[in-house]
Write a structure and sequence with these properties.
It is built from 14 helices and 13 strands. By secondary structure, the protein is of the alpha/beta class. The strands form three sheets. The protein has a seven-stranded mixed β-sheet, with helices on both faces. A four-stranded antiparallel β-sheet has the order 10-11-13-12. It has a two-stranded antiparallel ribbon with strand order 4-5. Helix 2 packs across helix 11 (about 220-230), helix 3 crosses helix 10 (about 200-210) and helix 6 runs parallel beside helix 7. Bound molecules: pyridoxal-5'-phosphate.
Length: about 325
């Protein structure tokens, strides 16, 4: 990947002339079955652009209650777009279509207008859970009934497609705009893309510019993305297998209650009085094992291309030691 970055053919992407960025954008648009795609420095900026595209100030966007756009984007929808997010609780990221329907405003003189439905695939907070395609189709139907667009936060869409063994476009078809990240499981230093209909992606270019996301010789990052699609996509299932092995071992460690992973993320609840997840994370760190404490009583372990079988063995050994 470093070699591909070094050898990238570049030009000024703010003038729309970088051939490598262009190549990546076309390739991702095609993979997702959309007209066009646009490269962004971060997933957050691409998600927020998606929200800004579909909404207007003083309106509401429905999202999953533990989603990235709700918890981890610093209330940007409100800050940037004047949009009120309406969280809907779910089972492992999978919102009930009836709950979404109930959250759509009636469109009268007393309530704000609903302008968007956001979904997340895979669902990070519940441990990289895969939302079944049928569930997405049901959500799409509710949105269609109310004339609402759907934005899909697919930072880890690659993992969902690998787990479901379906093309990315089968999942992306359920949404108008789709965000995918190169900087998570694919191992790139930075970059996400927003894909959708040609007119919206044209408008997204303007929003990206406003948000300060226009970058000049961005082909050096796009080259990393192209490399990742060629070399790091097919191997994602290895990460899923390793996550499952970590899960299996954790089921046999007293004080841990892991959630069976669908993909490369293992949510591990820590169920021992007086032992906060943060403390477990700190002690693991001393063993050279990095597992984030994302809540007071749960850890999130992520397998990726820098974690091999030995790494999983070391993580298991460290967890055993820390919890004895
Ligand atoms: C990481 C992530 C993002 C944001 O990506 P950044 O590049 O960190 O801004 C958005 N959604 C989900 C589900 C993510 O995991």
């Amino acid at each position: 990947m470093r070699q591909a970055i070094a050898e990238a053919v570049v030009d000024d992407d703010v003038l729309g002339k970088d051939p490598t960025a262009d190549q990546l954008e076309r390739r991702v648009a095609e993979m997702l079955g959309k007209d066009a795609a646009l490269f962004f420095p971060s997933g957050t900026q691409a998600n927020q652009t998606g929200i800004l595209l579909h909404t207007r100030p003083g309106s509401e966007a429905i999202c999953e209650a533990d989603s990235h756009v709700f918890h981890y984007e610093y209330a940007s929808a409100a800050w940037l777009g004047g949009v009120q997010l309406v969280p809907v609780a779910s089972r492992r990221g999978c919102m009930n279509p009836d709950d979404v329907k109930a959250s759509v405003r009636p469109g009268d003189r007393h309530h704000p207008r609903t302008t968007l439905v956001c979904v997340e695939q895979t669902h990070g907070a519940s441990g990289g859970s895969v939302v079944p395609v049928e569930a997405l189709i049901a959500l799409r139907a509710v949105a269609d009934d109310h004339g609402l667009p759907v934005h899909l936060d697919g930072a880890r869409l690659w993992h969902a497609a690998a787990a479901l063994e379906v093309p990315l476009s089968d999942i992306a078809a359920c949404a108008d705009t789709v965000m995918v990240s190169l900087s998570k499981g694919l191992g790139c230093p930075a970059g996400s893309l927003l894909a959708g209909p040609a007119d919206l992606i044209e408008e997204a270019w303007t929003i990206r510019k406003r948000l300060g996301g226009g970058m000049r010789q961005v082909g050096i990052l796009a080259a990393a993305g192209l490399y990742a699609l060629d070399h790091n996509l097919e191997r994602l299932r290895e990460d899923h297998t390793r996550a499952m092995r970590l899960f299996d071992a954790c089921t046999r460690i007293d004080g841990l209650r892991p959630v069976r992973p669908d993909t490369n993320t293992v949510r591990i609840d820590v169920v021992r009085d007086g032992l906060p997840a943060q403390e477990v994370s700190r002690r693991l760190d001393a063993h050279g094992v990095w597992i984030l404490a994302l809540g007071p009583d749960w850890l999130r372990a992520v397998t990726h291309l820098d974690v091999d079988d030995d790494g999983i063995d070391r993580a298991i050994a460290a967890l055993r030691e820390v919890l004895t």
